[in-house]
Amino acid sequence: MRTIGVFTSGGDAPGMNACLRAVVRTALHEGMRVVGIRRGYSGMLQGEFEEMDHSSVSNVIQLGGTVLKTGRSEEFYQAEWRAKAAGLLKEAGIEGLVAIGGDGTFRGAHDLWREHKTAVIGVPATIDNDVYGTDATVGYDTAVNTAVEAIDRIRDTATSHDRLFFVEVMGRQAGFIALAVGAAGGAEMILLPEHDIATGEIYNTIQAGIAQGKMSSIIVVAEGDEEGGALEIARKVRELGPVECRATILGHTQRGGRPTARDRVLASELGAAAVRALLEGEEDKMVGLVGEKVLLTPLPDTWGKKKPLDEHLYELTRILAA
Ligand code: F6P
């Protein structure tokens, strides 16, 4: 394999740039040519290709976002557009791809491989951490740290006013961010899509806390919780009785910012491993870090198998908050 393409796709995640740097420089080290594809699948469909060299990824390891930009493409769900993309990749001499993103990115990559035999290796990068086949995705650690810092600040004002705060963190389908943030931020309760807690129980727990002398509390809510987001839950709780509470949505602040050292190292290891996997003739797989080892997982398993939540940690947070 002499020429590879690389792109970032879906929601951006801190550490994507560190990953691009690793992909580009590992490939150059192996004597390959690297083509950067701008704006994910949307740019691929428009032939937005650019030659990348050593300096294309200079001074980016510390930057959040992605210098190649990203996007979510509706067209790429359709076979005729994927055929167009495969044709453009071929014209550009691209023999293999490194796809940096989450499950949506990997579904597109798998379709491209299935229909056109394009060799693709995925690198998991999404703040949500909801990808099977890796202990952590690139960006997750930074997002958790950003949210914990915000919670520490909210706790100051919560304590000063003797108030309850519902703090909503990202995670449309999974509670990984909420659990880690709740555990590290000492939350009194954590509301996750994986554990449905009815509003009545939330209200009773708040009242029990007040009876015990708890004057302020933080309840972390995953955006995908069954009972609704932070605003909705706060509204429902207020309907059950007089509770002085506020709701804060951390939103996209969790997606930006300088990647943590941990994310930079993970991104570097997985980016380099993706290039080596292509060189070894691997395709339709994702590189992930499991324990201390870099392992390959078939792309369909990355979204088809469910990554388990750390139930032990969830139980521990309940014990420690009591
Ligand atoms: O990147 C994942 C994620 O942050 C989800 O947690 C969130 O629901 C979603 O992206 C929002 O993405 P966007 O605003 O880009 O559509």
Could you say which overall geometry the principal axes of the C-alpha atoms support? Answer: elongated
Present as ligands are: 6-O-phosphono-beta-D-fructofuranose
- Helix/sheet category: alpha/beta
Rg from Cα: 21 Å
Strand order of the largest sheet: 3-2-1-4-5-10-11
Biggest sheet features:
7 strands, mixed
List the uncertain runs: none
How many helices? The count is 11
Strand elements, count = 11
Could you please describe the fold and organization of this structure?
Helix 3 crosses helix 4 (103-116), helix 6 runs parallel beside helix 11 and helix 7 (199-211) packs across helix 8 (230-240). By secondary structure, this protein is an alpha/beta fold. It is elongated, with a radius of gyration of 21 Å. The model has no long low-confidence stretch (mean pLDDT 96). The protein has helices spanning 16-29, 40-45, 79-91, 103-116, 140-161, 176-185, 199-211, 230-240, 261-279, 299-304, 311-321; strands at 3-8, 33-37, 49-52, 96-101, 119-124, 164-169, 189-191, 217-222, 245-249, 285-290, 293-298. The strands form 2 sheets. It has a 7-stranded mixed sheet, sandwiched between helices. A 4-stranded parallel sheet has the order 7-8-6-9, with helices on both faces. The relative contact order is 0.17. The structure holds 6-O-phosphono-beta-D-fructofuranose. 6-O-phosphono-beta-D-fructofuranose is lined by residues 11, 126-128, 170-172, 223, 255. 6-O-phosphono-beta-D-fructofuranose binds at residues 11, 126-128, 170-172, 223, 255.
